[in-house]
User: Fold this.
Amino acid sequence: MTDDGADAAPRPNWRGLAWALLPPIAVLLLRAALQAQTDEATASLNAVHAATLVTTPGEAMWAAARPFVLTLVTALVVIGAAVVWIRRGVRHHGWPRMRPRVVGAWVVLCLIAAGALMVQHLNRSGRQAEAARQGEVLLVREVRPTERSVGGAEVYLQLPGEAAPVHLLAEGQPATRFPPKSTVRLQTERGRWWGRWGSVAPLALPALPASATPPAASNG
Assistant:
């Protein structure tokens, strides 16, 4: 006698596995393709951000952690809402009826991610060059290299005509090239719809006070 229970082993749901894996794989492939189209001029530019002025160590810590905290909170809210929606749907309609809705929501989410990648690529690839400007270095800090970045110097600038300072990364440059109160040249390019990218280069070192001027060498 044969064991009918052993012969009736459940088959893997290949269709469900494909719907779960193929959309995010397609998004990752799109991201890699867009990165491959980035030219050297774009790769050499870094985002120009408005600097947040702080007066206490606590404000400095919050300014540094705020992007991560906001991203984490948003992700937790989205995941929590999705879990609640799926649990309520399964309770009222059962999983067989909820599965197409979950798959559809997953595909829509991946399409939104792909659309966001395309919009970001079009915004940056359609950038327009702006006139070079000179600014004064307010602060500079060293950025250590990581697996994804070569590091460099984070330069904080005060530009004429702008109330708030700006900062950007001088990739691969030592912080000693940008001493405070020195003058730098900022070349920026504005995105098609939003954002600025640029590169910064030193122009002149701050003038030494009279007392710090080295004495002339005597001939005697």
About this structure: Residues 13-41+65-125 form one domain. Residues 73 and 79 are 10 Å apart (CA to CA).
